[in-house]
Amino acid sequence: MRLRYLTEHDGWHQLAAKIRRIQLGYGGPERIFGMVRDDTKQEKRREKVQAALTAERQRAKEIADFSSALISAATEQELKQVALTRLAATFGATGALLALVDDGHLRVSTDAGIAMWEVEALHGLPLEDPSPLPEAIRSGKPQFISDRKDYIGRWPHGAAFPRLARLGSDYAVSITPLGETGNQPLGAWLVTYGSGYRPSLEERTLLGTLADLAGQALRRIRLQQARVELAAALQQTMLPTLPEHLAGLEVAARYRPSRDGLDIGGDWYDAFVMSDGAIALEIGDVQGHDVDAAAFMGQVRLSMRAIAAQEPDPATVLTRTNELLVTMDPARFASCTILHIDPHDGRVTGTSAGHVPVLCARGDGSHSIRELPGGPVLGVVPDTEYREETFTLDEGSALVMVTDGVVEGPGLTLEAGLERAGTLTGAALHEGLNAEETADRILDAAVAVDHLDDVAVLVIRRT
């Protein structure tokens, strides 16, 4: 039995009471014993954990919804509306504006957090102007301005932005260009934060990823390309740049769309350095071959990266991602494999959500198939707890992660496909090929025959 009572100074208390009737000896008298336990602190801890989990789910869902909306925007007006209604709320900012390049000048739109009269100095500004916003767009490099001293020191002759005059007194500014360096400048979005706030590395990475998606959407919209071509290009941009110069490891990835180039798939991979120095590697496949599959793939990958920034264990990342997707009630599911590798000793922790097994090849030319523990595909079964295992990748050996298009086809069974890819990898290592050359060999073999599906390959070699 559970009871609650209200005290004058401490608020509500939670009590748990148990009562038991006991007979003393054979035929003896009966006695009733009771125990009362104060569960107030335990209940508060439970509520705190639940609140943190709810906040984590909400943030991941907001990021997933944001990326999906950017991908789905079919017009420039839709893209503008998505950015200005979601940007500040998603990143805890106080205001946001979107500046697009039109005939060499800036065309500025703002949300309710920044009044239009405050950005009139930016509207119509030439792209060559020596001030923060045009510079970020020209260079393709994000800018963060923490206070007025920082602003004046870096742009002493920049055009006056009214709110920048109050930098440090009530807010800071982050500017993220839409698109990569070297491409035609498209624009940027600017968000303002409360004074003293500095976005984390994970926030800046997510902000940049979403800005890249927005830039790609804008580029395709302006070129009036078909929606299918837009989704295909966005899928390519969502495949990340792999980390370089990893001590003791070589990492290489390859992706190829389906043979006819018309179907849009949901294959993806990801690789990034964790806060503890371990290398996280992911590969996965979303059900279906259409625009919705590409959009859902973007949601899943961004959600997993956001969760991985807070959860160090691969199994926990899958568990939290599955919880999020189930609550979204998607019409699709996704398979995935995650590995965390310590580059110093080769210690690998891995788990799988209904995905293709991992291949392990060695320098003597041999190979083996490793079926990782885990659980079902993501987004289907609620309350799933995924399992993981730990093993060691020896020096000179390599792990190969693939999607099913590499090892399955109309004339190729999964077992035969895994054996073919494993044999190719073992031979490549025996010949002294590096990770890049090994990935090319596996991809070329998959593309040469039975290439009806899109394919992705991720090779990790310990040097």
Report how far apart the termini are: 61 Å
- Please report the total strand number as a whole number: 19
> How much is the radius of gyration in Å?
27 Å
What structural category characterises the helix and strand content? alpha+beta
For the residues shown, what is the average pLDDT?
A: 83
What summary fits the major beta sheet?
6 strands, mixed
Approximate strand percentage: 25-35%
Molecular shape: flat
In sequence order, what are the helices and strands, one letter per element? EEEHHEEHEHEEHHEEEHHEEEEEEEHHHE
Uncertain spans: none
Give me the oligomer status: single chain
Q: What's the helix count?
A: 11
Residues in helices, as a percent range: 25-40%
